[in-house]
Amino acid sequence: MEAAICELRLAHPRWGARRIVHELGRRGGTTVPGRNTVHRILVRNGLVRHQEQNHRRVYRRWQRDAPMQLWQLDIMGGVFLAGGRECKLVTGIDDHSRFIVIAKVVAQPTGRAVATAFAEAMSVYGVPSEVLTDNGKQFTGRFTKPFPAEVLFERICRENGVAARLTKPRSPTTGKIERFHKSLRRELLDHVGPFAAQAAAQAGIDAWVHAYNHDRPHQALDMAVPAAAFRPGPPGSRIALPAPPQSDEPRLPSSDWSRSA
Predict the structure, then answer these.
(1) Tens of pLDDT along 160-205?
(2) 17-27 and 35-44 helices cross at what angle (nearest 10)?
């Protein structure tokens, strides 16, 4: 048993004692030691490195009671292509189940690109009751100057009955989407190197996200996989986007843009 524990740790260096206990239990056939015992075995075999304690950001823990009540959306960078070009990733997570509903690679994180990724996700999984985002210009025109203006993302929310919620300025959402970003970077993006093209980046991320949703146990779900806790809504109707203006982003936000975007 000790050898099996060490082999799992060596094959998967990021697995902690709890994950190893879970994986041993899935194999069946033998009595599985407890989490503390597994940790002691890892320490005894030099497979746990002492790390200085970091002062972690403290989040207020909460989650919705059921799936499709709230999606959290964000934008992350660090998706590099051959030649040094950097793409962005539009991400979305279901708050209750931690199921990833959006992982769209975009060349530029424009308002239209973000709105398109959101509309595509609703066409697949249905329309959530609420969305939570930061205050980026792709998500809201509330803070544009000289006058507030409705952006395309807000218009899609309004026309589909989705309540758009914003976080406090310069604050993360709840830690869930940020934690997903961290896992994606550490387990995929930090190791695969530059992708040959944007399509290759999308394919690689799609494969990793599928495993994240369907195969990877989540501690916050008592080691269930996100797909087990997620239930999509009624199939969304095809959500048509307005024809793009001459420029994907308005030079000066205005009430005219809010009507035409």
Answers:
(1) 999 999 987 766 556 789 989 999 998 899 888 799 999 999 999 9
(2) 110
CA distance 231 to 177: 19
Element (H, E) at 115: helix 111-125
Are the C-beta atoms of 171 and 195 separated by less than 8 Å?
no
**Complete domains list, the chain, with CATH:** 2-44 (no CATH), 70-229 (3.30.420.10)
pTM above 0.70, yes or no: yes
Say how many residues make up the chain: 261
DSSP assignment of 28-48, as one string?
-SSPPPPHHHHHHHHHHTT--
Which residues are paired to 88 by β-bridges?
106
Other Cβ atoms less than 10 A from the Cβ of 255: the count is 11
Contacts of 95 (CB under 8 A, 6+ apart): 63, 64, 69, 70, 71, 72, 132, 174, 176
Q: Which two tokens stand for residue 151?
A: 């952006």
